[in-house]
Amino acid sequence: MNTDSNNAESPSSSDPPKAKGVREVVEEQFALRQLIWEYLIPVETNTIWYVLGGVLGIALILEIITGFILTFRYTPDAGQAYQITTNLIASPGWHVILGFHYFNSFLIFGLVMVHMMRVFISAAYRRGKQGLWLVGVVLAGLTFILYITG
Predict the structure, then answer these.
(1) What pLDDT digit, counting tens, does each position of 111-149 carry?
(2) What is the CA radius of gyration of the chain?
(3) In this predicted structure, what is the pLDDT of residue 119?
(4) What pLDDT digit, counting tens, does each position of 10-56 carry?
(5) Helices (H), 1-93
(6) Domain for residue 10, yes or no?
(7) What is the pLDDT of residues 63-92, one digit of tens each?
(8) Would you say residue 4 has pLDDT above 60?
(9) How many CB atoms lie within 10 A of CB 147?
(10) Any idea what the CATH number is for the domain that residue 115 is in?
(11) What angle (nearest 5°) sits at the alpha carbon of residue 119, between those of residues 36 and 51?
(12) Quick one: pLDDT at residue 68?
């Protein structure tokens, strides 16, 4: 066996370290290799119970968007509220947005309840996630207050 060919392939201790390129530095600093190329999705997250948080997030975003759109036509005046809402229901495009906003609020309320129960029953608030659980409880409380008050 030729030892010279083995020595030629292995780097010697006197060689200077190879300079890293911009891509390698960015991957190392932002942990992109672990985040993108080496990340494996756990098997237990491929169930309906773990999707509910994402569905809830999408429903919340859609509720905010439809609420923002409704602010262009709705005036928060107690004396005019019934008449404005009646006009929105009677108009061709606005009744769809108003109906979506209305029924999406029911969906959000139900999803928050199911999501919090799933986290509580599976004890996912344990193992160092007590702070995250408390944030979730506060957000659920705010959601309920907004649901009741409109």
Answers:
(1) 888 888 887 887 777 777 777 778 888 988 888 888 787
(2) 27
(3) 79
(4) 555 566 667 777 877 777 766 666 666 566 666 666 677 777 778 88
(5) 3-9, 22-29, 32, 48-70, 81-90
(6) no
(7) 999 989 988 888 888 888 888 888 888 888
(8) no
(9) 13
(10) 1.20.810.10
(11) 45
(12) 92
Tell me, yes or no, whether 53 lies in a domain: yes
| Residue tagged 């960015």 (tokens) | 26
Tell me if 112 sits within 8 A of 56, measured CB to CB.
yes
pLDDT given at position 33: 65
Q: What angle do CA 61, 107, 113 make, to 5 degrees?
A: 105
Token pair, residue 127, equals 């193992």
Q: Is 2 within a domain? A: no
Could you tell me if residue 22 is inside a domain? no
Q: How many residues does the chain have?
A: 150
Say how far apart CA 89 and CA 107 lie, in whole Å. Answer: 20
Rounded distance between C-alpha atoms, residue 85 and residue 95, angstroms: 9
Structural domain for 91, as ranges: 44-149
| Number of domains comprising the chain | 1
Q: 124: which residues sit within 8 A by CB, 6+ positions away?
A: 118
Better-predicted residue by pLDDT, 5 or 89? 89
Neighbours of 65 (CB within 10 A): 14
**CB within 8 A of 41, min separation 6: which ones?**
none
